Every structure is written in structure tokens, then in C-alpha cells.
């Protein structure tokens, strides 16, 4: 409860009781003024309680997403008819349900770092709404799948992609693994620059001794140039 709300509420009640005592002793004029002050104080306490509450601003985002977020794809992004990876964040080790146009695709659990991912296999051209639901909240993402979008991207490739460990970690000898359609296509020690890559959607992970392998993350070429991953220490 807000301290200001409590203060105005107690003052209002106190002044109200004082006015009642004055009225009982026949001081009706003073009692009327006191009742008026009490009404003002009590009236102020209500909007303060709503606006200030517990001191935490209430926003549409925090109220509806419950810590859930999409990392990929972007809202209203246009994708080709091929496999791709939904990625995002949630609370650590949180059970989640994945829905496509209101139909459940399955359940996943976020990692210890809160990251989650889900493979979507070659959807037909059309409009899609993906929803990630936890026990208490949900978040939605609209995308458009169109045939032949990669034809223009292919003209910009072969491409290169640089993968590194998180800037705050700088882990030596971390191994970057790049995969496409679930098949490993290249590896190297981060910071690693993969070259001569075809346009399309990939996934990548980092692994290192003493650390938990990172959750597979999406890489889209030629859109992405530099990507990183965070590694949790093994317990």
C-alpha cells in the first residue's frame, strides 16, 4: 500500500472522528468545516491509491506480458516459406505453451537464463499469429509468410556471419556451431567469422568447458552480420 495513500486515509478518518466529537458537543459550525476537510482528505486518498499504488508504475506491457518477450521474428515481419526459429525470453525455467492462430503447437520450458526457442517447420504462405503463454500471461506476434522472398536476398550472398561470446564474458576457446535445418554446417572458435554462407535462416550455439551450451538462437542471412550468445556456468 502506498505511504501517501495511507497518510491521507488516516488523516481523513482522524478529522472525520474529530468532527463527530465536535458535533456531539454542539459545535455544529466547526463540525461542518471539519467534515468538509475530512471529505477532501478522503477524496484525495482514493486517486492517490490508484495512481501511486505500491510505488510500481502499472503499464500495459508489464500487466499483459508478465516478463514474456519475443526476440525473433519482429512484429509484422515477412518471412519465406521455410523453417525458422521463434526465440524470446521469459522467467527462468518457466513452462510455456506455443500457439499458432489459436491452436496449440506444443509446450517448451525456458532456460536457466530465461531464453526460449521453438522450431516452426515450413509454414504455407499466409498470415500467422504466434502466441507464447505462461500460467499467468501471454504475448503475441503477427507475421506474414510469403513465397519467394529469399530470391532477392540470394542476390546479396554469399554472406558472412560473425559469432562471439557475450561482451561481458570474453570466454576463451568458446566453440561456435552454426546449423541449418537442424544440420551442422560449420564450427569455429569464437570470435568466429563464417564465410561463403547462402542466404536463409540458421541457428547457432556456443559451447565451452565449464559452461552450459547456449540455447539455439536464430541467425538470418543476409540480415544478420554480428551475433553473440551468453553462457551459464555449470553448477
Structure description:
By secondary structure, the protein is of the alpha+beta class. The protein folds into 3 domains: about 5-50; about 60-145, Sandwich (Immunoglobulin-like); about 155-235, Immunoglobulin-like, CATH 2.60.40. About 25% of the residues lie in helices and about 40% in strands. It contains 4 helices and 17 strands. It has a 5-stranded mixed sheet with strand order 2-8-7-4-5, with no helix packed on it. A 4-stranded antiparallel sheet has the order 11-10-13-15. The protein has a 3-stranded antiparallel sheet with strand order 1-3-6, with no helix packed on it. A hairpin with a 2-residue loop joins strand 4 (about 95-100) and strand 5. The model is unreliable at about 50-65 (pLDDT under 50).
What brief labels describe this structure?
235 residues, alpha+beta, Immunoglobulin-like, five-stranded mixed beta sheet, 4 helices, 17 strands, 40% strand, elongated
Number of domains: 3
Low-confidence stretches: 48-64
Q: Tell me about the biggest sheet?
A: 5 strands, mixed
Percentage of residues in strands: 35-45%
Radius of gyration: 28 Å
CATH architecture assignment name of the largest domain: Sandwich
Q: What is the first-to-last residue Cα distance?
A: 39 Å
* CATH domain topology of the largest domain: Immunoglobulin-like
Amino acid at each position: 500500500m502506498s505511504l501517501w495513500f495511507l497518510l491521507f486515509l488516516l488523516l481523513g478518518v482522524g478529522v472525520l472522528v474529530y468532527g463527530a466529537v465536535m458535533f456531539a458537543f454542539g459545535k455544529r459550525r466547526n463540525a461542518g468545516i471539519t467534515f468538509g476537510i475530512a471529505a477532501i482528505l478522503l477524496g484525495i486518498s482514493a486517486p492517490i491509491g490508484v495512481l501511486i499504488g505500491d510505488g510500481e508504475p502499472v503499464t500495459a506491457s508489464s500487466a499483459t506480458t508478465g516478463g514474456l518477450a519475443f526476440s525473433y521474428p519482429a512484429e509484422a515481419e515477412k518471412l519465406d516459406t521455410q523453417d525458422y526459429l521463434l526465440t524470446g525470453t521469459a522467467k527462468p525455467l518457466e513452462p510455456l505453451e506455443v500457439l499458432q492462430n489459436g491452436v496449440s503447437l506444443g509446450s517448451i520450458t525456458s532456460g536457466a537464463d530465461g531464453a526460449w526457442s521453438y522450431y516452426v517447420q515450413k509454414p504455407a504462405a499466409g498470415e500467422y499469429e504466434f502466441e507464447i503463454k505462461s500460467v499467468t500471461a501471454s504475448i503475441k506476434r503477427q507475421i506474414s509468410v510469403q513465397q519467394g522472398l529469399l530470391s532477392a536476398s540470394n542476390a546479396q550472398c554469399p554472406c558472412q556471419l560473425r559469432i562471439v561470446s557475450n561482451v561481458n564474458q570474453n570466454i576463451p576457446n568458446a566453440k561456435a556451431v552454426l546449423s541449418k535445418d537442424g544440420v551442422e554446417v560449420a564450427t569455429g572458435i569464437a570470435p568466429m567469422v563464417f564465410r561463403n554462407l547462402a542466404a536463409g535462416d540458421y541457428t547457432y550455439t556456443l559451447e565451452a568447458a565449464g559452461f552450459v551450451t547456449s540455447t539455439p538462437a536464430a541467425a538470418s542471412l543476409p540480415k544478420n552480420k554480428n551475433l553473440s550468445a551468453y553462457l551459464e556456468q555449470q553448477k
